[in-house]
Amino acid sequence: MSDTTKLNQRPEWTALADHRKGALPRPDLRELFAQDPGRAERYVVRVGDLRIDYSKHLVTDETLALLQE
C-alpha cells in the first residue's frame, strides 16, 4: 500500500513551513559565512556523483535536518 497523502499535507512539509515562518528575517549570506567559517564544507551533501551545495542558500542546520527527514 502506498501513501497517497499530498506532499503539502505531510507532517514533514508542515514542520519545514513552520520553521520558515519562525526563521530570522532574511539573514545576509556574508553574515552567515562570517559567523560559521566551516559553512562551505558543512553544507555540502553528496549522493554518489551528485554534489549539492547548500552553503550559498539561506538555510540553517535546522533547515537541512528538516529537509533530510
Could you explain the architecture of this structure?
- Helix content is 43%, strand content 12%.
- The longest helix has 12 residues, at 11-22.
- It has a domain at 11-16 and 28-67.
- It is of the alpha+beta class and 69 residues long.
- The two termini are 21 Å apart.
Q: What is the end-to-end distance? A: 21 Å
The overall strand count is 2
Instruction: Report the β-strand fraction as a percent range.
Output: 5-15%
Q: Low-confidence stretches at least 5 residues in length (pLDDT < 50)?
A: none
| Overall pLDDT score | 87
Q: How many DSSP helices? A: 4
Rg estimate, integer Å = 14 Å
Helix content: 40-55%
The arrangement of helices and strands along the chain is: HHHEEH
In short:
The chain has 69 residues and is of the alpha+beta class.
Key phrases:
single chain; 69 residues; alpha+beta; 4 helices; 2 strands; 43% helix; flat
